[in-house]
Amino acid sequence: MLGIINAFDVPARQPLVHEMVNEQADVPNAVALNATLTNLALLIGPALSGIILEKYGAGVCFLLNAVSFIAVIGCLLLMKLPPYQAPEVKKKIKSELADGFTYLKKTPSIGKIILMLLLLSFFVLPFNTLLPVYAKVIFKGNAATFGYISSFIGLGALAGAFFLASLKSGTNLKKVLLINIIIFGAGLMIFSHLSNFPLAMIFIIVCGFGMMSQTTICFTIIQVDSDITMRGRVMSFVAMAYFGMLPMGSLLIGAVSQHIGAPLTMLFQGIIAIIIAAIFYNFLRSGNSDIQR
């Protein structure tokens, strides 16, 4: 049910940023900030929940999560947005999805980013599925240990957020994206076979940095470059590529690790990230991108 809710929520919530920002020049920064906060929440949440789970149990974790939505609903009710104007011509869902797919085929600058995000979400980003194994088996810890690992990932993600905020106007985001995918893959490969906890945390910070930066840049490029009439439909494909592939990828990663072990599985995930970077190398290295900050 939560997956169904997200399928409606993401395409509506992400393009909402454009309606909240008055100055068009501020849209890229707003989109990047929104994606940054979203990814930070996804990383910091598990860190806090691991610590609370150890001390108070799962029930308190779910209760606090539910209560937190009161603040979200309150913020939505306080927003004052431009009046909604319904489209003059309403189409069926299948027709609108077909139009969105056609638009992506005609706009490779967006379509290739979504395809790359899909591959990363399915094969690489579910690496956190293996973190409980590292916490309990490799580092001989408990739920709190898992929370600390997630905290260090969040620290790396926070560093990634500051890095993106420091980029100068005119920076080619595609090239930055390429570098961060490589950093992400290399971090996973090194972390995968470390058993020393302090040393491993250094490289899990690197993983958090790479993951945060590449995901945020993908979201920023897609939203800023999308035509306003297609933005909602494009984000629906993004939701399928990102939020839809993550749980399916987690199933795959869990099944593979059952046979070859968590360290080897994560090593292969890092290698796959490098391969994805190599596949899209020419596209990401192209200097004709008009998505620059």
Task: Describe the structure concisely.
With 293 residues, this protein is an all-alpha fold. The protein has 13 helices and no strands.
Rounded Rg: 19 Å
CATH superfamily: MFS general substrate transporter like domains
Which structural class do the helices and strands define?
Answer: mainly alpha
Multimeric state: single chain
Order of helices and strands: HHHHHHHHHHHHH
| Biggest pleated sheet | none
For this structure, the CATH topology is Growth Hormone, Chain: A
Helical percentage: over 70%
Work out the number of β strands. 0
Helix count?
Answer: 13
Specify the overall morphology: globular
Spell out the blueprint of helices and strands:
Layout: H1 2-13, H2 16-20, H3 27-56, H4 58-78, H5 93-106, H6 108-123, H7 131-138, H8 143-166, H9 173-191, H10 197-225, H11 231-260, H12 262-279, H13 281-285
Helix pairs in contact: 1-11, 3-4, 3-8, 3-10, 5-6, 6-10, 6-11, 6-12, 7-8, 8-10, 9-10, 9-12, 11-12
